Here is the input.
Amino acid sequence: MAFAPMGPEASFFEVLDRHRESLLAALRRGGREPPSGGSRLASRFEDSVGLQMVSHCTMRKIKSDSPKSAQKFALILKILSMIYKLVQSNTYATKRDIYYTDSQLFGNQTVVDNIINDISCMLKVSRRSLHILSTSKGLIAGNLRYIEEDGTKVNCTCGATAVAVPSNIQGIRNLVTDAKFVLIVEKDATFQRLLDDNFCNKLSPCIMITGKGVPDLNTRLLVKKLWDTFHVPVFTLVDADPHGIEIMCIYKYGSMSMSFEAHHLTVPAIRWLGLLPSDLKRLNVPKDSLIPLTKRDQMKLDSILRRPYVTCQPFWRKEMEIMADSKMKAEIQALTFLSSDYLSRVYLPNKLKFGGWI
Here is the structure.
């Protein structure tokens, strides 16, 4: 054993272990999910991969002799030349590094980000293959250790502080864990509260990850690497609002803007652990702890309900319809009305022990 478990008795994990067996059986059947209780221009959905670019998508031409696209053409060539030098010298740079080589020329970081995405899509390779790394903002804690590309040994065993997600996920090796599950936490504040409550040790062995809101590329790559390496159940803990559901969908199914890298980024086996809209009624969360949906929230919710992958998730649809009908949303912190540590002491342990995910 890589770690000495300090958590609950083995019987606590019986439902989790059965869930893992069903996921492994699905993989043996060909990768399709078991039933659950230029990329910006066109994409399709496949339940074993997520959103991915279609092979016959619309092409956009950029010409050097066109006044409308001459500047974009020049910027693409400049970044391509920088990529060539990085590959030739076997060195790496972040998107931020590239922007600051000539911030006046590029204007803003978004211009660089979009061009790098276009080049990656055009060449059908990952950013890592272009020797471009993303700056990490995510955190990880729990039953995991690994060696970074430069030989640094990292131990994520849960303590008062977490470990920053590495900037070169493909370079980490010798990953070791006994974790029974991985918990993706939407918000940093919730993640830190769970750390303070010693959640990782109380429910050991497990791994916790947060992307601090919308996840960066490295956090998504790490979740994918953990799934591909260990095939342990992966759950999400997000606010019961359209924004939280959107973030969960990015981890599980990907996004339109990165659909050309879906195979490297998505984990369709992810399950929604909480906070479910139906939990609010079940736990008698008071109305003054709920927040009315804004017009923007309603538009986002309607957009998600129209997506093709929702047809594969009838239980997800039911939860979103509960939210739409009530016209209310809630943050995870709404559970503190029960007790300050209700999330870590009661809510999550019960959900994990009795299979309260969809």
Notes: The first strand starts at residue 43 and ends at 46. The first helix runs from residue 14 to 28. Residues 1-5, 37-44 have pLDDT under 50 and may be disordered. The CA atoms of residues 182 and 234 lie 5 Å apart.
